[in-house]
Design brief:
The complex is a heterotrimer. By secondary structure, chain A is α+β, with helices and mostly antiparallel strands. In chain A, 38% of the residues lie in helices and 22% in strands. In chain B, 13% of the residues lie in helices and 45% in strands. A 5-stranded mixed sheet of chain B has the order 8-1-2-10-9. Chain B has a 5-stranded mixed sheet with strand order 3-6-7-5-4. Chain C has a 5-stranded parallel sheet with strand order 2-1-3-4-5, sandwiched between helices. In chain C, 42% of the residues lie in helices and 22% in strands. Chain C is of the alpha/beta class. Classes of the chains: A alpha+beta, B mainly beta, C alpha/beta. The interface between A and C is large, with 52 and 51 residues.
Chain lengths: 686, 166, 120
Amino acid sequence: MSIDLSQFFEVFFEESFEGLDVMESELLNLQPGDLDSETVNTIFRAAHSIKGGSGTFGFTSVSDFTHVLETLLDQIREGQRDLTAEHVNLFLQAVDCLREMLTSLQAGTEPDLTNSNTLKKEFELILNGEVSAPVEQPVTIESDSSLDTYEVSFEPQHHLFKTGNEPLYLIQELAGLGELEVNAHVDGIPDINDLSSDDCYISWVFFLTTDKGEAAIKEVFEWVEDDAEIKITLCGGLFSDDMETASNDEPAKVAVDESIEPENTPVERKSVAAKSNAETTSIRVSIDKVDSLINMVGELVITQAMLTQLGEGEITENKVVALQEGLAQLAHNTRDLQESVMRIRMLPISFVFSRFPRLVRDTSQKLGKQVELKLLGEQTELDKTVMEKISDPMVHLVRNSLDHGLETPEERMEAGKDPVGTVTLNAFHQGGNIVIEIMDDGNGLNTKKIKQKAVQNNLIQPDDELSDDEINELIFMPGFSTADEVSDISGRGVGMDVVRRNIQALNGSIEVTSAQGIGSTFTIRLPLTLAILDGQLVTIGEHTYIIPLISIVESLQIELDKVNCVGGGVDVLRLRDEYIPILRLHRIFNHSGAIEELNKGLLVIVESDNQKVGLLVDDLLAQQQVVIKSLEANYQKVEGVSGATILGDGRVSLIVDITGLIKLAGLKKAGSQELNLGHVDTEVNS
Amino acid sequence: MNGELALTDSELDEQNIRQFLTFIMDEEEYGVDILAVQEIRGWEEITAIPNAPIYVKGAINLRGTIVPIIDLRLRFGLPSIKYCPTTVVIVVKVELKQGVKIMGLVVDGVSDVYSISESQASDVPDIHNTDNSEFVRGLVNVGEKMVVLLHLERVLNLVKESEVVA
Amino acid sequence: MKKILAVDDSASMRQMVGFTLKKAGFDVTEAKDGSEALEIAKGQSFDAVISDVNMPIMDGITLIRELRALPNYKFTPMLMLTTESGLEKKSEGKAAGATGWIVKPFNPDQLLAVIKKVIR
């Protein structure tokens, strides 16, 4: 049977990367001297699995390297060797090295072995300067070319069956080696009253003519050598061999089928390389999620069957009611199913958080700072795609906190603080969003320095009056960086503006709060998923648009006496204590045939980036979940529109992008009254 | 209809011959490479795109994909006419700088399929040097008629124009 | 159809073993550690068990010992997947009631050849 092993490569890589992550985080938990055996066991198992898999799938460079790692871990696990800090560092380097090797193998290229060979030598040095020996390759047993006849006597002990071995299969296997003559000895069978059905009483003498040699015969009986008397004699009687003595030697390896040709593997690997990209394309889903999905589908099938039955024959009035109920059931099932499917894409944020212990450890060592990392809300789930994209901005923010936020132990003591600084990562759900906080208890943002820098870079004027929050906001402006010299840690030319842009590309937002001497907190808000949105359908003229429900504050009918017209022809609604600019959606989108009179339409108050505006629409329709489709894919970016969807009747409807809309309308941040509507028309009535 | 140009498959191969789908617009016949054509549909209800150039009529749902629809008359600055039952949308797939895009072209009606060798096509005469000349790949005579072969990549590259609009 | 219980904490190994055996016409049930396997094994019967040794929660040797103690599994062939370095594991496994072992790394053909020694 030929089985293409390459079909398992992707799973192997994925679980190996996970294994490496486990090793890394567990290694960071290890305290030399105070050894937790379960932690060491976990690390050992991860290394062991990578070695087993890489060997099986033909990645010998990885299995060779993992072998030394595993051996040292085994010695530590068995208590033969004490764990030192040096070991931990070496293991961590090995984890990095394995990650690189696997990454290049996954991409279909041979890994660079310089690093792994150096590390391997260090491991071998620790392992009593053992000479480098490649992991034993399965040994092909040399076959005797000449035909010989052997006499094999096989006398099992009574308990043989209880080992699960079946003499018949052993005999069949023996027969496969050549020409076999079987003589069974039944003298051992006791009287029927003493007979136990669990025991084996028969013994055999075989004459086997084969060219496979004695080793092949021994191998047939390898599993039962302790449970039976086995004698193999070459007929002609020149020499006899007793299995009892043979068993003291290294047991023979399982014979290797001629079909494994090591040359084959690289070819297979190439075919995978073509398929696999750097970004992982598969997802591992817990069985509960799949089970609940299957349940939903079951219910859906039942509902469908019910509806089919109702649809047969004449439709009577009674049936109409039942049909309506059935359809309601169907809607319910569909929604549940959709939620379950979406849950499949959701993973706990610990996938991202888990890389930070190592990062914080390495970075703080480099900076000579003492840092404790706290992780909160690790089980908070978010969409896999969002997760993949949020990782880099978070790394940047954490590095920034370590580099610029936290002080050195000396500075901290001088300020009367604990010399050990704290960086906290926290995640939680809020509405339809996930909120991620990156907090440090460092010195806080230096507003004076930020303002000075902003003036230098012409971002603001020296006499601009700005609140502290507004000054802190400046760090997200393009072309802003406070580090006096570009440091290795955070200032790689990537600024906070890039972080903000990346987060905004995910429909998210980032803000910072900071207090001098106490610390800073960066707060990231992200939608849970990029694929589905709760939307409010609205009409303007004959056009139907979708407003994300999450940005809607309220909807109301306008009382004209609360509307003031300010400069530039913009109407502003006085709502409780706030003044809310009114945007006529149809004007911004350049559509005709919509309601112009403020008191005849409806006003949808939306909020984005802390700014509220009211959108004038003709009417509100249903609220529903919509699947987001790209308009850009076949067209281009449209200002004020974040995407499209397909409504129940098959029509396309566009999704309003509130942030983009405010920009399009020319409304600046609240406070500045520079309003510049694109299609302002002073005449209110159309 | 295409009797004059009927060729066998082997002849097609030999002479670097391509097949063009032609359509009528304002009594002129235009041709596009048939390999770019995905399907031909009737005119249907469409969703307008805000602030789009006048020739972008909107977007339709093509089996789950959002596809923009371009009125080719308006794109070429020809007078627009009311859409009627023979109005068709030719769905094409083109590779632009921004990637492969699927778009629909509104035309008066489809005409025929011709096999035309590259050498038959003549360059655009200078007198045609209007704004639209960049859209033209070549002119070719088929019997009595003249067919304008289009440069779809240029016709559908909307970026430059949209910048003007925005 | 003969039923085999395949136990391994590594998903790729489990898939490889499962796929190979299924293709050879066996009915395969997979489990990701000893305790999951034990639960599954208690609920139904299998014609053979193939288990990895190093696994979280419950290792393969404990699994084999526990299974062998069950009346249903008195004679059931149980094979261990072990590495070349695990020689002492082999005797430990045999003492726990293992029928035999397969040495890692192995390929699908080797796996089938070994399986043939215990069920056909």
